[in-house]
Amino acid sequence: MSDSPSDRPDLARPLPEWFDDAKFGVMITWGLYSVPAWAPLDDRLVKLLAEHGDGADKNRSYAADVDADGFDPIVTTSYSEWYLNSVSVEGSPTWRHHRETYGDRTYADFRADFAEAVDAWSPEPWAELCAAAGARYVVPLAKHHDGFLMWPSRTPNPHRAGWALERDVLAELRASVEARGIRFGIYYSGGIDWTFAHLPILRADDVARAVPESAEYAGYADAHWRELVERYEPAVLWNDIGYPSAAEPEKLFADYYAAVPDGVVNERFYAGTPDFVTPEYAQRDAPTGAKWETVRGVGLSFGYNRQEDASWTTSGPDLVELLADVVSKGGNLLLGIGPDAAGRISPEQDAALRELGAWLAINGDAVYRTRSWHVAEDRTADGLRVRYTVRDGDLYATFLDRPSSGMSALPRLALAADATCEWLGGDGTRCDREGLSTLSVPPVRPGVPEPVVLRISPAPDLR
Question: Is the whole-model pTM more than 0.85?
Answer without folding.
Answer: yes
